[in-house]
Amino acid sequence: MSCESSVDRDPGSRVADRKSKLLKSITNLKIRIVGALIAAFLVLVAGAVIATSLHTLQDVERIGRVWERFNSGPGAKAVALDRLRDAIGYGGVVHHFQTFILRKDFSRVRLVRAKLDEAMAALESYRQLGVNQREAAALADIEEVFAAYARNLETAIAMARDRVSSTGIHRSVRIGDQPAFDGLAVLDEELLKSRLASTAEIDGSVGHVVDYMTTGTILIGISLGLLVAGFFWFTSVRLARPLTALGRAMTELQSGEDSIPIPETQRSDEVGAMARAVEVFRQTSIQRRMLQSETAVTNQKLQAEIERHRGTTDSLRAAIVRAEAANKAKSEFLAMMSHEIRTPMNGVLGMASSLLGGRLNRDQRDQVQIIKESGECLLEILDDILDLSKIEAGKLTLEPTDFSLRELLESTEALWRSRAEAKGLTFSMDLEFEGEDGVHADRTRLRQVLFNLIGNAIKFTESGGISVSLSRVQEETPLLQFQVADTGIGIAEEKQSRLFNPFEQADASTTRKFGGTGLGLAISKQLVEVMGGEIAMESEAGKGSTFWFTLPDEPARSDVAAPPEKSNHSGAKLPSFGKKLRILAAEDNHVNQMVLESILKPLECELDIVADGMQAFAAVQAKSYDVVLMDVQMPEMDGPTATRHIRALPGKLSQLPIIALTANAMKGDREAYLACGMTDYVSKPINAQELFGAILRCCDSELQDAAATALEAAKPESLEPAGMTEASVPDEKVLSELLEDIEGLADNADKAETG
Q1: Rounded CA gap, 657 and 263, in Å?
Q2: pLDDT greater at residue 418 or residue 339
Q3: Which element (helix H / strand E) includes 651?
Q4: Number of helices followed by number of strands (H, E) in the chain
Q5: pLDDT computed for residue 108 by the predictor
Q6: Which of 163, 242, 505, 631 has the fewest Cβ atoms within 10 Å of its own Cβ atom?
Q7: pLDDT of 616
Q8: pLDDT reading at 717 higher than 50
């Protein structure tokens, strides 16, 4: 049975296959027949269009030849005729001839002759273009009239010279010019006939061209229509229907029904490629729906996690706001404390320097020297705290300059050797380094790091010595390596890791033997890193320590010279400046007023002191001064405001030198005061030499010469203070106020340590 059924099915399958192939062959044959018919018709149409185009080109050439003949015939004759008409009409021969006779204006003779020449030239050019019999006769009549004018012109000229009246001349030379106008009319008629003939010939040719173009356009339109019809039939069978089916499938896919089959995927043309792409899209949609469901679950989990962390984010944001507010408050507090500490320290150090310059016995001198050194130590601590604050806030800026390494090391050795030897230590400085002496770096910050390391070495060394050396390291970037070694107490290995942290020391107990704030090494590390280097150390407890740091070795950009040495001549007697200076000081603090009087007394100047900016503004208008020393923070009117008022005064008063004297020593204070109009800046505690230098820079050239001579003569030969007259010894009131300031500073220090 199975064999019979299979035999029965086979013939049916073969018939179905043959029927399918026959239908496909018939369809292909229809397409080929339609294509052949369209191609044959297009060939016929193309032949007709080509023939029409050739006839059109011939007619266009004929139109061109006719137009060329027209331009060389009637067109040129029209130009010559216009010239003849101009020679006869108004402004021509007749007009100028009659004007000559009436006015006896001999200047018109030249115009008549010129117009006659133009007329004869126009006649000749017209003849050369070819004329018929009527045109020749007309030209002869016109020429005769012009010849008559030429003959009678000479007669009229002779009669005019014989003073014959205009009427008499007119009767004698009367000329009939009507034949000339009749000749012009004949020429116009003949020219019109020529134009009409040329126009008729052109119109005929244009008509032929229009007929040929119309026929060609109709044929082309029919061909395009057949092409469009064939194109639409082909696209409908081969493209539109399959694309419609694919469009329905895409619509179903967009609605979320991704189980429908995609047709036409077996085709090998572009439609088949599109169908396969739609199939890929269907598979992708299925995968995307699965991913969306998984993503929804994941989003729910993430949302829960976000909600859990949102509280933490809010807390962090609030912490950032509090930290910024605390940082701002810290900066304001440091600025305020800097001012408040420097103000009394100005009195302490100023009066201590004044006392050291007076007559004291050895015990008194030692006691005052302790006061001065303690005050300077307090200022160093304050500067360290300010430096650390600027570094932490990222506001520390470098000021690189060109300087001599040898000069820096020599000045460092000169300062620290005596201190080391005072403790019984040896101090060696290796100045024999290789390479160039001049470098480009921040000399002040480099010196600060060296001083911190050398100061620590001397402080923590009881016996032995300290050695300082400089070498050059050749790596990818050339480096300078500074090294400070000592034979001191050394540092245990477990304490070395926190040595460069702020306020950290190897021995932080209350019974530690050595003083200090623990800021020196932390600041040194930050400064070295800001300058592009690194710092490290090697140490062993009981055997000493070696600190070294590197900096980029950048050569100097110009010739280097040693900077001027700063010396403290608090005990030197300063002679007169060559003329008596008139100085106004605006200072509200009574102790600072006394310090100023003490510092300026050697100048033998005329000093006036006021307590606020308003009084200073009134004083400069009431009296002439050479320079004004202006405090910044004062009651009634502060220093910057008073400076702006003075700068607004008329004449030379607006140019009066003003030196800022202030305890505000934070970064940017100097620039702010100079920007408001002040001439120079000296920070408190006031150094006498810095103040004298500022006064010297502000004075006029004549005073500068005298002051420079005075300063040169005032350099002491030794560090021993000069004698002091009885009048210069501070009284008991000054000493008592000084002691009160010192006690106040001590109380503040105790409170700070307790806090």
Answers
A1: 97
A2: 418
A3: none
A4: 21, 12
A5: 76
A6: 163
A7: 92
A8: no
H or E, element range at 210 = helix 178-235
Q: Which pLDDT band, with edges at 50, 70 and 90, does 507 fall under? A: low
Reported as a single tens digit per residue, the pLDDT across 222-271 is 877 877 777 777 676 666 667 777 777 777 777 777 777 777 667 777 77
pLDDT for residue 236? 67
Mean pLDDT along residues 53-74: 68
∠ CA 489-492-498, nearest 5°, is 110
- CA angle 720/722/726 to nearest 5° reads 140
Cα(554)–Cα(442) distance, integer angstroms? 11
| Amino acid identity for residue 260 in this structure | I
DSSP string, 521-548: HHHHHHHHHHTT-EEEEEEETTTEEEEE
Crossing angle for the helix pair 688-698 and 701-713, to the nearest 10 degrees: 150
Do strands 627-631 and 465-473 pair parallel, antiparallel, or not at all (unpaired)? Answer: unpaired
Say how far apart CA 420 and CA 465 lie, in whole Å.
8
Tokens of 512: 């530690």
- Regarding predicted confidence, which is higher, 319 or 711? 319
The sign of the dihedral angle between the CA atoms of 405, 406, 409, 414 is negative
DSSP one-letter code for 71? I
Task: Tell me the C-alpha distance between 104 and 9, whole Å.
Answer: 132
Q: What whole-number distance in Å separates Cα of residue 380 and Cα of residue 567?
A: 18
Name the token pair of 544: 């000493």
The pair of structure tokens assigned to 538 is: 């090697």
CA–CA gap between residue 542 and residue 564 (Å, rounded) = 41
Instruction: At 460, give phi and psi (nearest 5°).
Output: -100, 15
Residue 683 has pLDDT above 70, yes or no: yes
In whole angstroms, how large is the CA radius of gyration of the chain?
Answer: 58
d(CA 435, CA 556): 12
Contacts of 45 (CB under 8 A, 6+ apart): 219, 220, 222, 223
How far apart (Å, rounded) are the C-alpha atoms in residues 467 and 484? 6
**Pairing verdict, β 479-486 and 544-552:** antiparallel
Give the Å distances, CA to CA, from 282 to 243, 256, 267, 278, 510. 16, 10, 18, 6, 80
Q: What is the per-residue pLDDT for 720?
A: 36
User: Which tokens go with 89?
Assistant: 């009409």
Digit-coded pLDDT (tens) for 178-189: 777 777 788 778
Indicate the length of the chain as a whole number. Answer: 755
Residue 567: its H or E element: none
CB-count exposure of residue 293 (10 Å: 0-12, 13-18, 19+)? exposed
Phi/psi at 275 (nearest 5 deg)?
-65, -40
In the numeric block, which tokens belong to residue 21? 């192939």
Beta strands in 541-694 (DSSP E): 544-552, 582-586, 606-610, 627-631, 658-662, 680-683
Structure tokens at 193: 């006939």
**Cα-to-chain-centroid distance, residue 350:** 49
Residues 6+ apart with CB under 8 A from 42: 223, 226, 227
Whether the Cβ atoms of residue 348 and residue 739 lie closer than 8 Å to each other: no
